[in-house]
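Justification of computing resources. Each target in the renewal requires a structure prediction run like the one illustrated here; the chain below, 218 residues long, is used simply to show the kind of job we budget for.
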Amino acid sequence: MQTFDATNFKEICNKLGRIDKDLYSVIKQHGHPPMWTRPATFQTLILTILEQQVSLASAYAAFKKLKQKTGYVTPAKILSLTDTELRACYFSRQKTIYARELARAIQTKQLNLKKISSAHEDEVRYELKKIKGIGDWTVDVFLMHALQRTDLFPLGDIALVNSLKETKQLHPHISREDLLAIAEPWRPYRTIAAMILWHSYIQKRGIKLNHALEDYSG
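Resulting structure tokens:
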């Protein structure tokens, strides 16, 4: 079970650059990517649910509104809000259900985030996917950013796939299997390769990321 942190992140980026000339080109042109990390908390999972299938700007707008309403986001606070209050925080009907299901799982101790934080990735995936609304993409993002595991490559992420296609000049309709085969030489550091590709995607489009997580205390 490998993890990355500030002491090894840039060296892993450089190692990937030595393995793959296209990743090297991204680093040379845009610099090292930020080390995108988040605390392994309920609040992080709520944000990740908000990020499902929408732009980062939309997700951060909803998260910011929720934080203005509740302060630090806890299961009890989510469960205390009415449908109308959550809708005012830009929660869709489905995401309202997902957030409450997650909150109940934490409150009833069906899910123990502290316990799974040190578990094998398969166990983390198994436990999180018991919760309605949490699928592989959400688990991958949690493993990558909150638990800082080094070898995830979420092909459910459109920006990542598009950046890989751009960087490698791939056919638009390349198969999932072929994409995984291209990423195979990056093991056991595919998470960091994904961050390099996200960095390229963001820089090429001039996307300004909202630093919605700066007020995290953990």
